[in-house]
Amino acid sequence: MGRKATRAIVEKIFMTPEGGAPMRTVDEATAVADRGLEGDRYLKRAGYWTDIDECQVTLIEAEHLEEIERETGVKVQGGEHRRNIVTRNLDLMGLAGRRFKIGAATFVFDRPRPPCAYIASITERLMTKALWNRGGICARVVKGGTIKPGDRITVL
């Protein structure tokens, strides 16, 4: 975790009610234990990967998104990355095997979330390649609660 863990925050939160629909930013989200984010496609069992390879909640680093736009020109700041929570100042892979708190909710690292070909079919042709090795992680909700942009992320 190192220096990043001390100032880690949520920068943005994205959700969509159904698979393939555009992601939208939200001012807050309610994490539901063992299920995901209230109103999001995977909690509603309406995501493209439902019953195949689903994640309760996905996270991605803001710094990676900035690199992607700068290096490739692929647009990712409007949720095109299809991840729920954009973090800042946190090495997400460093959370492997750890629990962490965001706002009132507690999560546990589940696994890395590499990009798939499907994401390119509904966003930009080069999206899968752009997200390669910086696609974020999956997390499970251990304890539910409200999360908002600006919330600190604390590794437990």
Feature tags:
8-stranded mixed beta sheet; 3 helices; single chain; 11 strands; disordered N terminus; 156 residues; M1 Pyruvate Kinase, Domain 3; 3-stranded antiparallel beta sheet
Shape: globular
Distance between the termini: 11 Å
Question: What is the total tally of β strands?
Answer: 11
Give me the CATH architecture, please: Beta Barrel
CATH class: Mainly Beta
Describe the structure.
By secondary structure, the protein is an alpha+beta fold. It has one domain (2-155): Beta Barrel (M1 Pyruvate Kinase, Domain 3). It is built from three helices and eleven strands. The chain has helices at residues 62-72, 117-122, 127-131, and strands at 9-15, 24-25, 29-32, 36-37, 57-61, 85-88, 99-102, 105-112, 137-143, 145-147, 153-155. The strands form two sheets. An eight-stranded mixed sheet has the order 2-1-6-5-9-8-7-11. Strands 4-3-10 form a three-stranded antiparallel sheet, with no helix packed on it. The longest helix has 11 residues, at 62-72. The termini are close together.
Secondary structure elements and pairings:
Layout: E1 9-15, E2 24-25, E3 29-32, E4 36-37, E5 57-61, H1 62-72, E6 85-88, E7 99-102, E8 105-112, H2 117-122, H3 127-131, E9 137-143, E10 145-147, E11 153-155
